[in-house]
Amino acid sequence: MDWCRYRFRSVWRLAAPPDAVYTVLERAEEYPRWWPQMREVVPLDERTGTARFRSLLPYDLVVTAEARRRDPEARVLEVALSGDLDGWARWTLLPDGPGTRALHEQEVEVRTPLMRALAVPGRPVFRANHALMMRSGRRGLAALLRAV
């Protein structure tokens, strides 16, 4: 097992139709408005941007995200990640009654020397930190969708 690799899967149930959720999620530069841990997103061009995020741990991660797939018909958004994390992240949105089942999947390898050095003892803390970030993101997105 490579202790520096992580695979995450989160399911968010949202009380808004999939197309409305897709419209919000495709605008990554606006994530910091509703997702507190997404501290900054800076578009570099039509397909690429940088993101800086931090959850409970006092440690920022910075990645460059490049769009791999942007499919409004299938309601799939996928990016390749490089920087402090290398890998990919994907949203898949499916109807769930009158709302949406938003599946977020991510496979990454940590690249920062500190996180690599703490890979074994820090793994449970890093996973908990990610889970808290995802819960907060779901709450923020749900609140935004209710306000629209």
Structural features, described:
The protein has 148 residues and is of the alpha+beta class. The chain contains 4 helices and 7 strands; from the N terminus they run βααββββββαα. It has helices spanning 18-25, 31-34, 113-117, 119-147, and strands spanning 5-14, 38-43, 48-53, 61-71, 76-83, 85-96, 99-110. A 7-stranded antiparallel sheet has the order 1-7-6-5-4-3-2. Strand 5 and strand 6 (85-96) form a beta hairpin. 20% of the residues are buried. The model has no long low-confidence stretch (mean pLDDT 97).
Question: How would you describe the shape?
Answer: globular
Would you identify the regions where 5 or more consecutive residues have pLDDT less than 50? none
Main sheet summary: 7 strands, antiparallel
Q: What structural class do the secondary elements suggest?
A: alpha+beta
Q: How many helices?
A: 4
Quote the beta fraction: 35-45%
For the largest sheet, list the strands in their spatial order: 1-7-6-5-4-3-2
Please estimate the helix content: 25-40%
The radius of gyration is 15 Å
Element order, helices and strands? EHHEEEEEEHH
How many E strands?
Answer: 7
Q: Quote the distance from N terminus to C terminus.
A: 44 Å
Mean pLDDT: 97
